[in-house]
Amino acid sequence: MTEDLIKEAGALGVYASHYLNLNDRDRAIHRPARQTIPILNTPTSPSPSPSIRRKGNPQSLDTSRLLRGQMSRSTMLIDAMNSPLSLNGSLREDDELTAISAFPISDPVLEAADRSELPAPSSFAILMKLIETLAGKDKLGKVVQYGLRILLFYSKRSTSFLQRTHAEGLKFPTGDYKGIAGVIMGLIQRPEFVALFLLKDFETRAAGVVSGLSMYRQMLRCGKTPFRLVNLAYKLSATASVFANKGVEKGILNVRDKWFTPTTLSDLLSVYYSIFDESLLLFKLGVFGDPRFRRFAVKHEALAWYYNIILGLYKSLSKLSTLKESQNQIKINQQVRQRAKALMRNSVNASSSPRSAVTSSYYNYQSPTLRAVSPSPSVRRGLLSSAASTAAQEEIDELGKQIKNEQIEILKLLCDFVFDTITVFELKVYEPVHLSFGLGAGALAMSKVWMQVKEDLQDS
């Protein structure tokens, strides 16, 4: 009867020669598990037959404890890892004792999901933090500036329409009333006077706000020209020293490697733009007054911005391509890891399934060639570990955020490109359409800053 129970216990049969000689106390400590982890680098031998087992008291085996040992999978896994014996009855190797089971007891992904998430910051907190940043002030000012310019266009258009249609009858009627009553009755009879008053007042105030925001944004950008010129001077001095100390050939190589690059071109265009942008600010402040130089500065400020937009599009498209390539490579590696993980699970399950002595002997035997190509325990831990998959997924998510930011940047640059193309080439376009591209560029740029501020608040 005991042998039948041992056979029903599946993989317990290979432990019979060991457990039949243990007392009750040792048997309770070393309770075997149904599923075990095989040794990859040690050839196995058939299970000892019942005929060669040492004699003992078969009735001393605690059958209820053995049956209860199969109830909990987590308990079985822990016991299998702590058991000193392998499938062939020999002591386990150190690598096998630390091998990862095909059924992990704890999953870091599930543990992370169980943890309570931090509350998302409110829109008011994000807006307050956004205004504290220099980029946030600039982008918010741009949205308000171009939004007011669109409203000013329609306000002036409505004012012109009212003045044109009521040019002959803009006499304020008072009727038989005088004083305040006459004014109220006149407004009731001619409501276009109220509309004209409100529109004129809005135009006066909004025009001042637009002019002030334009100067404010220029003041946020000003002050960088001297530092950019100094950096270019240092770079030029370093190139000259290469010519003087290392010869013409090394100097030409230095010019090719240091000056004919997108970074140097971006620095030169930034200096080009900042010179004329700050010159226009000095005109607004009253430092410069020559109208001919003002027209020259306006033209070249638009051209410099146009060139910067084109270069920015090139850099953003290149970066987007690199990010997508990196993300695809990680996804491919993750798919390969998942397939290898599935194969390892199947291999472990096949090796630990209950078989007869002859069948177990056949499947547990590994030729030297198979043992040579079998993965090491460290590789198995890497394949079966969910922490590696979690890290890969986090990297994919981070690259996804960067890809989204670059896509928004490209859309913003396209809006700037259309807006400045109309300005540079003086194209005849409906003004609200022209201004809407500037408004769209400002809104997209502000959305990037908004997402960055929100992420910083969540991390803090």
Compose a concise summary of this entry.
73% of the residues lie in helices and 0% in strands. The chain has 19 helices and no strands.
The SS-based structural class is mainly alpha
Mean pLDDT: 76
Distance between the termini: 66 Å
Number of helices: 19
Helix proportion range: over 70%
The radius of gyration is 40 Å
What's the overall geometry? flat
The major beta sheet can be summarized as: none
Got a strand count? 0
How are helices and strands ordered from N to C? HHHHHHHHHHHHHHHHHHH
The assembly state of the depicted protein chains is single chain
**Segments where pLDDT lies below 50 for 5+ residues?**
1-20, 32-112, 356-367, 369-373
Q: What fraction of residues sit in β-strands?
A: under 5%
Describe this structure in words.
This protein has 460 residues and is mostly helical. The chain has a domain at 1-85 and 92-105. 73% of the residues lie in helices and 0% in strands. The protein has helices spanning 2-8, 16-19, 24-29, 63-68, 73-82, 94-97, 108-114, 123-132, 134-165, 179-189, 192-221, 225-258, 262-285, 291-352, 357-364, 368-373, 377-384, 386-424, 431-459. α18 (386-424) runs antiparallel to α19 (431-459). The longest helix is centred in the last third of the chain and has 62 residues, at 291-352. The protein starts with a helix and ends with a helix. One of its GO terms (cellular component) is peroxisomal membrane. Residues 33-63 are annotated as: Disordered.
